[in-house]
Amino acid sequence: MTESLKWFSTRGSRNPFTTRETISRGLAPDGGLFFPSHFPHSNEVELAGLDSFPEIAALVLAPYFQGDPLKEQLPEICQQAFNFPLILKKLDAQTRVLELFHGPTAAFKDFGARFLAQVLSRIQPRTTILVATSGDTGGAVASAFHKVKGVNVVVLFPKDRISPRQKHQLTAWGDNILSLEIDGDFDACQRMVKECFQDENLSQDLNLSSANSINVGRLLPQMAYYACAGTWSVRRMGTPLQLLIPSGNLGNAVGALWAQQMGFPVGKIGIVTNANETLLQYFKTGVYEPRKSVATLANAMDVGNPSNFERLKEIFPRLDLLKKNGISFFSVGDEEIRKSIRQTYDRYQEIVCPHTATASWIAETIKPFQPVTWVATAHASKFETIVEPSIGRSVELAPQLKEILSRKPVYETLESDVAALKKKIRQAFG
Ligand SMILES: *Cc1c(COP(=O)(O)O)cnc(C)c1O
User: Fold this and answer.
1) Is the pTM of this model over 0.85?
2) pLDDT score at 282
């Protein structure tokens, strides 16, 4: 038996937390991010010839729940959370793609949101999750928690600032999901959410919680799919996984780094951003300088100050350690994103989304290592207005999105006024 695993804040406080506690808290009390005392080694994970992702995920995650009744429930949690395929596909002798977009809202956010929903409903019944959203996360969270017993969700989104398809994904639910269109911009939505959390009465009465992307409950499943894909890669193709990962807040990439720290067969990792170059500049100069984000075609990656950077620094406190471990950074502009969508289609008949296109561009032009697996973070049909002109044909809507878009939208419109929001939440779930 190795020492039991605890979580500490990246800001240096020595207060230990269990995995269960980190998941219900989200953020450490000192404002830092939770980071484990050590990584359990893959040698201790007996895969016993298992091959399906939910089964492998339950075993990979078990050491993190040592001593917690949740450990025995992991097989069931993983079966319910990951009820859609994870696919590692070979395109040619040197090229593979890891498809993370087969979940209900067709982006990798489904893995984290669905695992978090299953865990939270078991450890914290009677919770109200409050999220402001402008992209993929809100839809994934609403879908993941829809009809989950004991948990209610309030989703705030800005009026007239999201696409009709995006809006439909945020409003296709009803039941325990309250979708609210706010007469204001995304910042107004975020401000209202923050003010609700600061209201201690409301926060306690409704057990308010966030499903923030820095939550360990979202990172653990992202680690598990890289552990699984690494295992498949060795079994089926005879080589470790070498990855190019489209990145914004580094949540997906940190999952890969953690799987590598556990000793799963994950070799070189290239972290690819769009024109938001904060990380590339850090890689070149060793100076980390947050900037304002710029808008790009890969909008889910428009991040100027990646929220998981503190976790990257915790693994590799110095740049030379990062380089020695085969980690590198790349940045891809909008023009290359368009070219990449076209080129990937011409070469492989694969239609990639603008985010995935950043990684396939590096794989096909710079070729930093081979064999290479690029990570496909969303289905191309979520971004048809960008993809279709680039390839000159229409993109078939992902089947799971067809289902969502056939539902009747249920939502209410509110002025951007926090008192009105609080009243509405109490009416619905108080
Ligand atoms: C969220 C998202 C990303 C960025 O992931 P991070 O974990 O923030 O690095 C990339 N592509 C898509 C489609 C996303 O939804």
Assistant:
1) yes
2) 97
